[in-house]
């Protein structure tokens, strides 16, 4: 760090321990670890979790589904949610370990625990390992096939921070990883894909496969949208620090990028409904709700305002997540009624 950079850093506000929220209620020595796992920023937990939830609801729509009781579904989602809390904590800690030098150059990130020196690299690595072990404990409560299928997702999660060094499309890498949770959610319910391939006729099987691929692609697009909006907060600092992202690459036409990806997302959701014959409730809630949220964001969001980008990142999570959940949930309810 140059002397000029040090002087600029010294002129910035110093770290102030949290006075409100969950971090203000825990021992001071635990606060850096709470910050490392972003326990005070739960939006990321739900963005990681929603595709799992989508998968558990979607499983009841698939050929040969014998989905259990509502309590079984609730229990499965409880395991997935709390497992997500710890997997997301491990991912955030791992991200901060690899990004610590970059974080010191980014205004919003410069006071993160590793960047400001509140904990050592060894402590951060130990914490990451502990969070991973806890997450594995939750995975062990799910079907064995879940652990096998989770390996590609975990691998991508480990590699994601490196994508910001070597490609302009880390949001796409993250989207591919997070969207895999849709398939993990299906597997978590105990749905047997061997039954799907062996006992369904070719027409039904192909239609359902196409529908699942489109739904997966819609989740990839959703992640690209919200993470690009999130990255807009740091676009100037990232460009100076050499951090690559779609926000940096398309900073002169970020709104055009968001329009294109949002259109793809809605189109993929609609195609899923068409190929899976999900009915008017799905199109109204999942497709209509997502379209409304995206149109509102694109027309009103000031991409040059970090505060507005953060507001939409937090609230867009619920607008889109609950819209898709509502459509799938209602379709699942109807399918359950037909099975009984």
UniProtKB/TrEMBL annotation:
<keyword id="KW-0414">Isoprene biosynthesis</keyword>
<dbReference type="InterPro" id="IPR006370">
    <property type="entry name" value="HB_polyprenyltransferase-like"/>
</dbReference>
<feature type="transmembrane region" description="Helical">
    <location>
        <begin position="45"/>
        <end position="62"/>
    </location>
</feature>
<dbReference type="GO" id="GO:0006744">
    <property type="term" value="P:ubiquinone biosynthetic process"/>
</dbReference>
<dbReference type="GO" id="GO:0005743">
    <property type="term" value="C:mitochondrial inner membrane"/>
</dbReference>
<feature type="transmembrane region" description="Helical">
    <location>
        <begin position="252"/>
        <end position="274"/>
    </location>
</feature>
<comment type="similarity">
    <text>Belongs to the UbiA prenyltransferase family.</text>
</comment>
<keyword id="KW-0999">Mitochondrion inner membrane</keyword>
<keyword id="KW-0831">Ubiquinone biosynthesis</keyword>
<keyword id="KW-0496">Mitochondrion</keyword>
<feature type="transmembrane region" description="Helical">
    <location>
        <begin position="118"/>
        <end position="140"/>
    </location>
</feature>
<dbReference type="InterPro" id="IPR039653">
    <property type="entry name" value="Prenyltransferase"/>
</dbReference>
<keyword id="KW-1133">Transmembrane helix</keyword>
<keyword id="KW-0472">Membrane</keyword>
<feature type="transmembrane region" description="Helical">
    <location>
        <begin position="311"/>
        <end position="331"/>
    </location>
</feature>
<dbReference type="InterPro" id="IPR044878">
    <property type="entry name" value="UbiA_sf"/>
</dbReference>
<comment type="function">
    <text>Catalyzes the prenylation of para-hydroxybenzoate (PHB) with an all-trans polyprenyl group. Mediates the second step in the final reaction sequence of coenzyme Q (CoQ) biosynthesis, which is the condensation of the polyisoprenoid side chain with PHB, generating the first membrane-bound Q intermediate.</text>
</comment>
<comment type="pathway">
    <text>Cofactor biosynthesis; ubiquinone biosynthesis.</text>
</comment>
<feature type="transmembrane region" description="Helical">
    <location>
        <begin position="74"/>
        <end position="97"/>
    </location>
</feature>
<dbReference type="GO" id="GO:0008412">
    <property type="term" value="F:4-hydroxybenzoate polyprenyltransferase activity"/>
</dbReference>
<keyword id="KW-0808">Transferase</keyword>
<keyword id="KW-0812">Transmembrane</keyword>
<dbReference type="GO" id="GO:0008299">
    <property type="term" value="P:isoprenoid biosynthetic process"/>
</dbReference>
<dbReference type="Pfam" id="PF01040">
    <property type="entry name" value="UbiA"/>
</dbReference>
<dbReference type="InterPro" id="IPR000537">
    <property type="entry name" value="UbiA_prenyltransferase"/>
</dbReference>
<feature type="transmembrane region" description="Helical">
    <location>
        <begin position="280"/>
        <end position="299"/>
    </location>
</feature>
<feature type="transmembrane region" description="Helical">
    <location>
        <begin position="209"/>
        <end position="231"/>
    </location>
</feature>
<protein>
    <recommendedName>
        <fullName>4-hydroxybenzoate polyprenyltransferase, mitochondrial</fullName>
        <ecNumber>2.5.1.39</ecNumber>
    </recommendedName>
</protein>
<comment type="pathway">
    <text>Secondary metabolite biosynthesis.</text>
</comment>
<feature type="transmembrane region" description="Helical">
    <location>
        <begin position="172"/>
        <end position="189"/>
    </location>
</feature>
